[in-house]
Model the fold of this input.
Amino acid sequence: MSVLLNHKRPFALPIVEQHPAASTISVRAQRLKTWELPSMFHCSIVGTCLTTVELRQVLTKVGDIDTKTATDHVLHSRGVRAAGQRDIAAKLLNKALDRRHERILKHFSKLSTPAEIKVQWDKAVDDGDISGAYWAVMSHPASDRPLMNDIFGEVHMLSHLVGSSSRLDLARLRRLQLDVEARDDKIARQEARLQAAAQDNVILQRRMEELEENLRRAQAAAGETAPAMVDQRQETRLSEKLQAAGERAEGYEKRLALAETKLTKALSLVSVLTEENLALKRELDLLEVTIAMAAEPGTAAGEHGQETLLYVGGRPNLFDRLRKLAESRNIELLFHDGGVEDNLSLLPAMVGRASSAVFPVDCISHSAADMVKRLCRESDKPYLPLRSASLASFAAVIAEPLAAE
Done:
C-alpha cells in the first residue's frame, strides 16, 4: 500500500508508443476509447475497472462461445483482446465501463489539466475509489503519457500487494485444513481400535463366564460323587485360566481407558483447530468484502461520524497499512506499542480519547493487555483481543461494529 501513499515518487515505465492526447491538453473534447489507448494499458483496465460478472455479460451479448462455462482467466484474456479492436465487442466494453463509473467520470470531466487530474486521482485513492478513478484518468482527453504511466504503476503495484496478502492467508488456511483432515483420520483410526478392543473385551467376558460355569459344574459333580476324588489338576488348570483371563481383562480395561483419554484430547484439539479454521475463513471473507467495498464507488468512507480506535501492541512496520485501512472506514486510529518504546503511563489518556480498543494477543505483553482491559472496563468502553497482528485480523474487526467484551 506504500505505493499509493507516496504519490510524489513516480513509477518508471518505458514509453512504448505516443498517446494521442500527449501533445496538447485539450486536443479533443470526448474521452478516449479503449482501442485509442496503448495496448499495454488494456489488461489493467479490464482487470481493475470491470468485474468478472460484467465482463461475462458483455461477451455474452456479442455471442462469444462458452461464455457461461469459461474460466475467469479466459474471459479476462478475451476482454483484453476485445479492448484493442474497434468493433461491437469493444464498443459494448466501453459502454459497460462508462455505465459502471458514471458518477466519478462526471467529476473528472470538469478537469482540464494533468495536474488537476493527478490531484483528483490522489483524492480518489484516499477514498478507496480506485477502479472508477483509474478508468476516468486513462480515458480523460487531458491525461498525458507521463501521468498515465505514473497511475498505471501505482495500480500495478497495488495488485501485487493485494495478491501477496491474500495468498499468505489462503496458504495458512490450507495448512489448517490439512491439519484438521489429518486429525480426523487419526481419530477415525483410534475409534476403530477402541471398537476392536471393546469387542475383544466382550468376548473375554463371555469366555470368563463359561470358565466359571464349567468350574461350578465340575465342583458340583465332584461333590455329588466323591469329594475326595476331585481332580485337583483340572481345578488348578481352570483356576489358572480364570486368573489369566482376569489379567487380560484388566489389561484391556487399562488400554481402553488410555485410548479414551487420547480420544478426548484429540477431539479437544480438533475443536480448537475447527474454531481457528472458522475464524480464518471469517477473516478472509471480511477482508474480501473490505477490498471489494474499497473498489466500489462511494463505499470507502463511513456513513456515520468518525470513530476513534486505540490499537495497543502489534508490529510497528504495519502501522501505516493499519491506519490506511482504518481511514477507509472513517476511523481515526491511535497507536501504542504496548510498552516497548511508549510508556505505559500514556495508556489511561489514550483510552480516554478512544471510543474502543483492540490488541493482538500474539504481539503484546501481559501487563499491557491487562491494563487495557482494566481501563476499558473502568471507562465502560468496548475492547477486543485480535487473533493475531496481521492485516487480515484487523480488517475483519473494522468490517463490522466492535462488540463489548
